[in-house]
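Posting here for the record, re: flavin-adenine dinucleotide.
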Amino acid sequence: MMLRTCQVLCSQAGPSTGAWQALSFDGGAFHLKGTGELMRALLVLRLCAWPPLVTHGLALQAWSQRLLGSRLSGALLRASIYGQFVAGETSEEVRGCVQQLQTLGLRPLLAVPTEEEPDSAVKTGEAWYEGNLNAMLRCVDLSRGLPENPGPTGNILMQLKVTALTSTRLCKELTSWIRRPGASLELCSERLAEAMDSGRDLHVSCLSTEQNQHLQASLSRLHRVVQHARAQRVRLLVDAEYTSLNPALSLLVAALAMRCNSPREGGPWVWNTYQAYLKDTYERLRRDAEAADKAGLAFGVKLVRGAYLDKERKVAQLQGTEDPTQPDYEATSRSYSRCLELMLTHVSQRGPMCHLMVASHNEESVYQATKRMWELGIPPDGPVCFGQLLGMSDHVSLALGQAGYAVYKSIPYGTLEEVIPYLIRRAQENRSVLQGARRERELLSQELRRRLLGWGRRVPH
Ligand SMILES: Cc1cc2nc3c(=O)[nH]c(=O)nc-3n(C[C@H](O)[C@H](O)[C@H](O)COP(=O)(O)OP(=O)(O)OC[C@H]3O[C@@H](n4cnc5c(N)ncnc54)[C@H](O)[C@@H]3O)c2cc1C
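Prediction output follows.
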């Protein structure tokens, strides 16, 4: 019934309701921001485009602490990189940041910054994962307690990194098992879902006793986060990571989706992330969308280009295996565009049973999404939303928000010590994006010149 209502709404909102109006990403929306904020953004984006800063970020931070002392070096970071990309340390600071975003028409997508060192003993014990579980539960509460967004209810979203709750070693083990030809039904989503529900021990023959215990503890942590998020009406967007882990992550998501994404629950509560830079993503996305359809489950997708390009290629080269990534940037963009088209068509057919986040800073992808939404009659503030990182591509986010689209900024928060290693890792992964933020820097310079020197006209918006 709900599905039919939305399909009717979607078809009524079709292209006939006025001419298509392209969004303009010309920085006009910067008028919403203070001069201090624009200056900081320009400074930080210029610094981040300087490769040595990104490559040696952690060493530089340690060096500045020794030279300037932790107070002064901390103050410098707060006024620059931390201030630009992080919401703050305390709940109050996060709330303040979110309120400011909301006045600009933007919404929060909180992310707990966790960094697992693959082989670090400190960060692989159960206690570390239990600590992360508590941080996730607090993040659910914080997301729930933030001022409500206008628009349809049920639009509180939060990012979930599964490897904060289970070890990468276990995920790798499960992945290689899943990939084996004729892998047994021992590792199917139904069995994992049952083990989560019952809390009874699950024994998987490919795992050692210790790994089986860790699997059980991980399933219990995942179950607790998801149950809590669902009770608080917070939707969880599971991050995609490396290809050596993703099949295991997808299996866990499938198990969670069986319990949380049934139609009577009101849309998908657990979403998966699809990385267009992988050669097999389009097919996987098509198969998963069809499977959800067949099983009568809601389907939630965060569509990204992918953040781990260099490492994926390095690993393939080292192992002498086929590179799983697209051969060049253009191929990734074509793949993104095809996946986007597939999902938008799916949304237009399935209505609120299918949700999509277009997680990209790319102007062409955002343009394609908004245009196709209009052509397919998908309302701007419906099951399709947009996602960008806090402090990045504000000219795109603000233009979308001002036009009435649902736009989320991915927001890390936490102390300097917790967040800086996370930020540096993300900056290394998104090196090409930071270096490619040239247009954003130009638009910022243009607006600042206009304000400070009275040069140039105000950009129409
Ligand atoms: C809200 C949000 C959530 C995210 N969640 C995840 C996540 O869960 N998992 C994840 O992996 N990433 C995630 N990302 C990061 C994302 O995958 C991209 O790295 C980032 O957004 C840059 O892509 P773009 O479309 O914004 O920008 P663009 O500048 O248009 O694209 C840059 C991207 O193109 C691809 N690319 C660049 N050069 C080449 C090349 N030579 N060959 C092939 N491909 C190339 C890479 O994927 C690169 O990141 C997320 C991003 C956002 C905004």
